[in-house]
Inverse folding.
């Protein structure tokens, strides 16, 4: 959860607290947080009370009913049954005594009548009881009465007969005939009444049993319900307790991780609760604030303190109030929020202090980011507009100059001038396109680096040869110093290293006015036996940059002012591309600048050390060498390199001083074997100094020119005065080693690294695979200018067939476009290398393609090609490749 969302959640809980307080005097619908749970528990209580009440009432009714059943059984069936049985018992007794009584001579008629009446009276009493309690049919009671009456009549009839004949036999006989049937009938009636009474009692008893069973079952159900309610209630209570503990822990956890302090003031305006995080945020212990609110309020400024007190004391304020405050002695900014909770007798106030310092900084950063994004969007729009202008400018020049040349085709001088300007505009347009493509690949993370060995000396010379003419044309001095560089063969991306250095140096030259100076100084620091850090410091005394622009100097599309962009041109991408390339190579770039005084760029790049680096296996003869240069640093650097090669060295800082040292050496019979001489020196230049030296030493001492200037214009004069060779500045250890390892070189030989194609070279045939007619025509003419004849084929398959059908040695080189129909250049190169003929593995194959990125170069080399020339074709690069491979196809393709 986002921190600020947590803070909002805490604020919601604070508002909830307000609702909770209000619920003390509001209906249950306003309950918060636990509302549903409380209502649920209250409903459960109501149900439990209802069930208990029902159970109690049911129990009372049941007990009354059981008591009534018992009373009914006693009052009705039991009494009727018992009286009927008593009457049966009397009947049995009287039946057995009647014959005796009637046949007894001791009883007179009055006594016998009295006994009969007594017995009948007892029976009549029982019938009266039965009549009151019997719940059977009235007919049965009437029949019982009639039967008893019949017995009385029959007994009296027997009495009369007994008087006439009192013999026992006759009495018994008459009893059996007259009285016994009445007794039997009466007895049957009593049996029926007793049986009905018993059945009635049994029915009441069964009904009572059923009620008892129902009550027992109801009691069990009620007990289960009560147990369930108690169980679920305890679970809910336990759950609520656990939930309360969790919420308490959550609240403490939130307080520990958010910057919101809560203080609750009671109706007396005293702090009743302070959140635990007050010590961390405010520096106050919660108990300290609770015990004395002035401890906190004294940290408020007067205006803020009075504002808070007014809200605490004014019961008419019902809405939330907020303001930003600062506490005394703190740089933090707090949002002070007050939530009045006033309802009826309740008068609480919840105060929240939220540390907004980070949020304000966050919002400020968001605003800055939004501004930056808008600026970037505007910059891109401006860039597109600017690019439209920048691209149309050279395009206009190209189209315009071409049109003018065509219209004045007979004016050779004008046509030549137009073509030169067209060439310059084309190169400018190519630079724009390359910058845009590079930036696009960088931003899409698709720029790949190659890690291959390269010659640092060759790289530095190529940079110098590219920049020096531009600087010279502008009137700016350009110098490269390599005094602290020992490793020459490095491992890295040579193409991107060139691009980084050239971008910065070209910028320095562009922004340095005439008469200014641009210096590139290289130094190295070996970090391990296999790695070095190369530092390049590029300084100028040009227009410099304002301090506020330095932080934006490496951003895309950035230029210091519109006036500078308009005056000097450019895309605003050069330094951005450079910065990204340096980062991609694991290096760093920094700039220091002062407006009006110039700029200094410091570039640090890591490189691997090639196994072929800087160790010269061939031992050299110890020679005496003299270095003559007006720059002391150059002299000392040359002497250090020569000393490392085992030479005895001295140096002189002028031509005159050098001549004096040579004269002195001749007098001491210890002449110098070789003299390294700067061409451009004050007072006495290299040419004059060389003439004097030759006069003194003759042809025995080798004289080698050391110069940053082009050798070609002075080569003829130099040979005439006896100069043996040329070393280009900046020089490296290998520059001297190449001369010292072959001191017998002829005078007309030159060790300049730049290959010069001789005009009288016999034309050799090369194979050119190119599917575009215009590109093929351009390449044919360039090759023809260099002394080569090109045979053109339209795709890779035709190239393979042409090479295969001609004898070995027919073609001296193959130039291969990459993207062609039928078969592309990569496939064609692989097929040629796979052919079973000797020259298939040795003939140089050079990619000539518009695929110009470093990964494209790697693909070409991996396919078996020897080199890579990007379109549009650079004539100087083409001449260098021709000089490198044109006459030496005996080497392998992977050399």
């Amino acid at each position: 959860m986002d921190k600020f969302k947590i803070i909002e959640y805490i604020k919601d809980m604070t508002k909830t607290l307000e609702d909770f307080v209000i619920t003390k005097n509001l209906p249950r619908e306003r309950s918060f947080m636990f509302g549903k749970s409380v209502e649920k528990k209250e409903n459960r209580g109501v149900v439990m009370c209802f069930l208990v009440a029902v159970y109690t009432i049911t129990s009372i009714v049941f007990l009354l009913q059981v008591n009534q059943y018992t009373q009914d059984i006693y009052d009705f069936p039991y009494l009727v049954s018992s009286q009927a049985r008593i009457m049966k018992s009397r009947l049995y007794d009287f039946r057995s005594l009647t014959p005796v009584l009637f046949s007894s001579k001791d009883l007179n008629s009055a006594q016998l009548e009295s006994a009969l009446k007594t017995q009948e009276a007892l029976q009549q009493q029982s019938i009266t009881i039965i009549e009151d309690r019997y719940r059977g049919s009235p007919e049965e009671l009437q029949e019982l009465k009639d039967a008893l009456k019949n017995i009385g009549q029959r007994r009296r009839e027997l009495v009369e007969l007994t008087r006439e004949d009192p013999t026992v036999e006759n009495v018994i006989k008459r009893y059996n005939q007259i009285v016994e049937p009445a007794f039997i009938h009466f007895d049957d009636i009593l049996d029926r009444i007793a049986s009905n009474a018993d059945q009635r009692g049994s029915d009441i008893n069964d009904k009572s049993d059923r009620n008892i069973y129902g009550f027992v079952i109801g009691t069990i159900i009620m007990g289960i319900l009560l147990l369930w309610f108690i169980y679920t209630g305890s679970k809910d209570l336990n759950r609520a307790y656990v939930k309360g503990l969790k919420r308490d822990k959550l609240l403490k956890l939130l307080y520990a991780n958010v910057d919101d302090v809560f203080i609750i003031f009671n109706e007396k305006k005293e702090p009743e609760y302070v959140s635990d995080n007050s010590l961390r945020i405010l520096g106050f212990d919660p108990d300290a604030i609770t015990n004395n609110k002035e401890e906190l309020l004294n940290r408020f400024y007067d205006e803020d303190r009075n504002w808070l007190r007014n809200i605490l004391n004014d019961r008419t304020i019902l809405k939330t109030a907020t303001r930003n405050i600062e506490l005394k002695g703190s740089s933090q900014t707090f949002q002070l929020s007050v939530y009045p909770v006033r309802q009826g007798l309740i008068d609480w106030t919840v105060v929240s202090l939220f540390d907004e310092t980070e949020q304000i900084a966050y919002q400020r950063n968001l605003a800055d980011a939004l501004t930056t994004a808008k600026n970037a969007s505007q910059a891109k729009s401006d860039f597109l507009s600017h690019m439209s202008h920048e691209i149309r400018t050279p395009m206009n020049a190209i189209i315009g100059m071409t049109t003018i040349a065509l219209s004045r085709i007979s004016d050779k001088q004008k046509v030549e001038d137009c073509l030169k300007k067209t060439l310059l505009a084309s190169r400018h347009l190519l630079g724009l396109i390359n910058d845009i493509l590079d930036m696009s690949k960088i931003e899409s993370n698709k720029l790949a680096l190659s890690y291959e060995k390269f010659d640092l000396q060759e790289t530095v010379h190529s940079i110098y040869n590219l920049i020096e003419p531009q600087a010279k044309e502008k009137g700016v001095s350009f110098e490269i110093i390599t005094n602290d560089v020992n490793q020459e063969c490095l491992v890295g991306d040579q193409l991107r290293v060139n691009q980084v250095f050239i971008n910065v140096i070209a910028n320095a030259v562009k922004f340095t006015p005439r008469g200014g100076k641009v210096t590139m100084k290289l130094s190295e620091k070996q970090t391990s036996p296999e790695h070095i850090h190369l530092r390049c410091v590029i300084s100028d005394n040009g227009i410099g940059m304002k301090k506020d622009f330095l932080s934006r100097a490496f951003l895309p599309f950035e230029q210091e002012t519109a006036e500078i962009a308009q005056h000097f041109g450019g895309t605003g991408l050069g330094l951005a591309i450079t910065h990204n390339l340096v980062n991609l190579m694991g290096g760093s770039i920094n700039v220091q600048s002062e407006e009006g005084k110039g700029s200094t760029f410091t570039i640090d790049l890591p490189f691997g050390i090639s196994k072929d680096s800087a160790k010269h296996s061939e031992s050299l003869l110890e020679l005496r060498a003299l270095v003559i240069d007006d720059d002391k640093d150059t002299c000392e650097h040359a002497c250090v390199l020569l000393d490392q090669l085992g030479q005895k060295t001295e140096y002189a800082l002028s031509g005159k001083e050098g001549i004096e040292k040579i004269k002195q050496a001749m007098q001491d019979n210890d002449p110098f074997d070789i003299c390294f001489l700067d061409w451009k020196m004050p007072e006495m230049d290299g040419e004059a100094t060389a003439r004097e030296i030759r006069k003194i030493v003759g042809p025995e001492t080798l004289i080698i020119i050391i110069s940053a200037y082009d050798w070609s214009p002075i080569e003829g004069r130099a040979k005439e005065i006896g100069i043996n060779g040329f070393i280009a500045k900046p020089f490296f250890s290998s520059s001297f080693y190449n001369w010292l390892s072959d001191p017998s070189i002829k005078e007309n030989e030159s060790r300049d690294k730049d290959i010069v194609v001789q005009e009288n070279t016999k034309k050799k045939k090369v194979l050119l695979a190119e599917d575009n007619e215009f590109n093929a025509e351009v390449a044919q003419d360039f090759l023809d200018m260099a002394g080569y004849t090109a045979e053109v084929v339209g795709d890779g398959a035709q190239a393979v067939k042409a090479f295969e059908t001609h004898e070995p040695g027919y073609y001296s080189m193959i130039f291969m476009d990459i993207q062609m129909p039928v078969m592309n250049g990569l496939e064609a190169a692989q097929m040629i290398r796979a052919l079973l003929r000797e020259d298939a593995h040795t003939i140089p194959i050079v990619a000539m393609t518009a695929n110009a990125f470093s990964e494209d170069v790697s693909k070409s080399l991996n396919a078996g090609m020897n080199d890579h020339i990007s379109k549009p074709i650079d004539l100087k690069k083409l001449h260098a490749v021709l000089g490198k491979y044109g006459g030496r196809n005996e080497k392998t393709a992977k050399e």
